[in-house]
Design goal:
Distance between the termini of chain A: 52 Å
Order of helices and strands of chain A: HHH
Shape of chain A: elongated
Structural class of chain B: mainly alpha
Radius of gyration of chain A: 17 Å
Strand order of the largest sheet of chain B: 1-2
Distance between the termini of chain B: 88 Å
CATH class of chain A: Mainly Alpha
Largest sheet of chain A: none
Number of domains of chain A: 1
Helix content of chain A: over 70%
Oligomer: heterodimer
Number of domains of chain B: 3
Low-confidence stretches of chain B: 423-436
Radius of gyration of chain B: 29 Å
Strand content of chain A: under 5%
Mean pLDDT of chain A: 90
Number of strands of chain A: 0
Strand content of chain B: under 5%
Mean pLDDT of chain B: 87
Structural class of chain A: mainly alpha
Low-confidence stretches of chain A: none
Number of helices of chain B: 28
CATH architecture of chain A: Orthogonal Bundle
Number of helices of chain A: 3
């Protein structure tokens, strides 16, 4: 692991983040959007850890753990919302969930 | 003992306020008996308290203060809500509470059938509170509080029957004309405050402007121009409140109110506020000969002007109203020539006999089912014997027949005007303080005395005309009123009798001596001028004048000359028209002031109100909001992913610029 240069990790993280972002913006299925958000969070985790390793600073690890914990909580809440939406609308398509417009 | 005496002032002032609050807030539910009791008893107790305080002062004690609380404390300005009982305010308080109490009692009979009985007494008590603030306040700010308060109550009571449009308008006229005067009063007060080291307390002002200060040269202001300006501004206030030319126009219209109100507010008490104020500040006014001469001139002109109008009026209350304006003119003539004691004397006797005359006219109007035209009355001495006798006493008193109150006080004023001449103050600088005017003033005051005598002739004539036409000759009204008159009850007759007695004995009260402690200064500034021929001849002349007026009235309205008045009116119809229409002053004011103000107001309404405020302001603001909303509403379309795109783009831009 130590043999792999930092720039590779960063590149991988950035690519993962970009994939996640595009997924969030383009996909219509709520579950897929949700998974894309997880992808973005984990891309950030990866970059945090890469820097932490490189700098020998354990604060990055701590922050990554926080993100994992918050992401777990967020996943629970998010899935509950999606489930609830599905029960109402019989659909998890985001285009069908637009009640909060003007 | 002294503590109790001081707290008497609190009782005198605040008891009527308590009555006003009780009657005003709960009077509708309390029932007539309780309202009557609260309304009359509060003023009655205040009168008794005033009597005790007066006895205390009379026994040789010092004048005393009562501090309610510290009112304004801002920087160097300290104003206390404080009351001061000295010889002048004692006299005023006795007149206000005494006459006020009698009129309250009279009102019980007069207003008995009115549906807003409780409201009437609430206003009347509030008026008593304001008037007592005016006369008892120990500084100019408390006086101003009362000054505005009586103006408000006057407005409320003139427009008491506000469902009659004309009466409501009369109330507004009184209020607005008074505002003009109050504006002058305010400016005068602020000027004084500015120059007199920020003090408004009478005693402090008095010591600031005292003889010693003048001799030592520590007067707070030495410029005669400024002093004259202050005095004239204050006099404008007095003109408004006390109905002097040019601001007298509201008083005749004020007769729209209930007659006891005319007696209390528009004859006996409120309208004398200006005389009281100038007497209270005599030390200041004495420093400005020009202001004094102006006051005397305006007073004399008002006296003769209003008296001539009074001669031809047909409405019983209008005659009395112009008579009041005329008598107030006398009082201002008195203060203007420096005869303050005589003026306050006349103020007191006038309060007695004019309240009597107004209440008498109220009894007549009440008996005649609201008829006010004296030419539709006549021979009423048969119907209303007690009203007749008391009215006769009041008429004799105002006409100046020796032995009755009005004779002494009117005589004192004319004597002062003929016998006094102002000197000017050498300590003052500036063009308006030069002493060579002194001789001119002495001569001018002689002229004013003659004017006063002519006005006295008119007074005797029109008052006896009123008396003869109302109580003698043949009845000319409708039969129903004659057959079923509203006879006055005891509540109305007893005040009449008390006031009739006061109209006789009031003249024997030595007011000038009583006021001597607070009027010690004028002696230094006045030259006695008793050598003038007029001064020696004054008493026989004025007695003759009164007799001529009375005999002429008898001759023209009861005696052999009964056809002459209508003959005069038709031959000199232009003169009669001009005088009957009050010299068209109301029309003149309407054309010169009211119309232009209305036109400007209409223009402002159309341009500023309709276009700027309504159009741009009120309708513009929601229009802007609506348009903005319409333009940016597509942003919120409910599609979460578009929001996310916006966030990402925003973030990218942010990152790009923060890089």
């Amino acid at each position: 692991m130590s043999g792999i240069p930092l720039s590779w990790w960063l590149t991988l993280g950035t690519v993962l983040f970009g994939v996640g972002t595009i997924g969030v913006l383009t996909r219509r299925n709520a579950l897929v959007v949700f998974m894309s958000i997880e992808l973005m969070l984990n891309a950030v985790n990866l970059i945090l850890l890469a820097f932490a390793r490189q700098r020998g600073d354990e604060h990055g690890h701590v922050l990554a753990f926080f993100i994992i914990a918050v992401a777990a909580a967020e996943a629970a809440v998010g899935l509950a919302i999606i489930l609830s939406v599905f029960r109402h609308k019989r659909s998890v398509n985001l285009d069908d969930v637009r009640a909060l417009k003007h | 003992m002294s503590l109790q005496v001081e707290s008497l002032l609190g009782i005198i002032v605040f008891l009527p306020l308590l009555g006003a609050v009780i009657n005003g807030l709960a009077g509708k539910k309390l029932g007539k008996g309780v309202v009557t009791f609260v309304g009359c008893a509060t003023v009655g107790v205040a009168f008794v308290a005033a009597l005790f305080a007066w006895l205390h002062l009379k026994s040789g004690q010092q004048p005393f203060h009562w501090l309610a609380w510290n009112w304004i404390d801002a920087g160097s300005l300290h104003v206390n809500l404080e009351y001061y009982f000295d010889h002048l305010s004692a006299l005023m308080t006795l007149v206000v509470t005494g006459v006020g109490f009698l009129i309250h009692v009279f009102s019980v009979g007069y207003m008995g059938e009115d549906k807003s009985y409780y409201r009437y007494f609430a206003y009347l008590n509030l008026f008593m509170f304001s008037m007592l603030n005016l006369v008892l306040g120990s500084n100019m700010v408390v006086m101003f509080l009362g000054w505005e308060g009586v103006g408000l109550c006057s407005y409320l009571l003139i427009g008491f029957w506000f469902d009659d449009d004309l009466k409501a308008q009369a109330g507004q006229k009184a209020f607005i004309v008074n505002r003009i005067g109050d504006f002058g009063f305010l400016i005068g007060m602020f000027l004084l405050l500015f120059y007199a080291d920020g003090t408004v307390d009478y005693l402090q002002l008095q010591s600031l402007f005292s003889d010693q200060a003048r001799e030592v040269g520590t007067l707070p202001l030495r410029d005669s121009l400024t002093i004259t300006a202050i005095c004239l501004c204050l006099f404008v206030g007095a003109c408004g409140k006390s109905a002097q030319i040019p601001l007298y126009v509201w008083l005749p219209d004020a007769m729209a109110g209930p007659t006891p109100v005319s007696a209390l507010i528009h004859a006996a008490t409120m309208v004398t506020a200006g005389v009281y104020m100038i007497t209270r500040l005599n030390f200041l006014f004495m420093l400005s000969p020009i202001a004094m001469a102006t006051i005397a001139t305006v007073g004399a002109l008002t006296a003769i002007f209003a008296a001539t109008i009074g001669i031809v009026q047909r409405d019983i209350k209008k005659v009395l109203a112009y008579s009041t304006v005329s008598q107030l003119g006398y009082m201002f003539l008195g203060v203007g020539v420096g005869a303050f004691g005589a003026s306050v004397f006349h103020l007191m006797t006038h309060a007695f006999f004019k309240a009597l005359l107004f209440l008498g006219s109220g009894a007549v109007i009440h008996a005649m089912h609201g008829e006010q035209d004296i030419f539709k009355m006549g021979n009423l001495r048969k119907l209303l014997p007690i009203t007749h006798i008391t009215f006769l006493i009041g008429t004799i008193a105002i006409a100046g027949v020796p032995g009755f109150a009005g004779f002494f006080s009117k005589e004192a004023i004319l004597h002062g005007s003929a016998g006094l001449g102002l000197t000017t103050d050498v300590a003052l600088t500036g063009p308006w303080g030069l002493s060579e005017y002194a001789g001119v003033f002495a001569g001018w005051f002689q002229v004013l005395t003659v004017v006063g005598l002519v006005a006295a002739l008119c007074t005797a004539f029109y008052m006896f005309r009123l008396y003869f036409v109302t109580f003698w000759t043949d009845y000319r009204g409708d039969r129903h009123s004659w057959d079923h008159p509203h006879k006055p009850g005891f509540a109305m007759e007893i005040p009449l009798m008390v006031l009739a007695v006061l109209s006789i004995v009031g003249g024997y009260f030595p007011v000038s001596d009583w006021l001597a402690p607070i009027l010690s200064r004028p002696a230094q500034l006045l030259v006695e001028n008793h050598d003038s021929a007029l001064s020696h001849m004054l008493m026989p002349i004025s007695i003759t004048v009164a007799c001529i007026g009375i005999v002429a009235a008898w001759f023209l309205y009861v005696g052999p000359g009964r056809r002459l008045p209508s003959l005069f009116a038709s031959r000199l119809s232009w003169l009669h028209t001009v005088v009957f229409n009050k010299y068209f002053v109301d029309e003149l004011y309407h054309g010169m002031i009211v119309r232009p103000v209305q036109v400007v107001a209409q223009a402002l309404f159309l341009v500023v109100d309709r276009v700027v405020i309504d159009g741009i302001g009120v309708r513009g603001a929601p229009w802007v909001v609506a348009m903005t909303g319409r333009m940016i509403r597509f942003v919120q379309n409910g599609e979460v992913q578009r929001y996310a795109v916006a966030m990402v783009v925003g973030l990218a831009v942010l990152v790009y610029f923060l890089k």
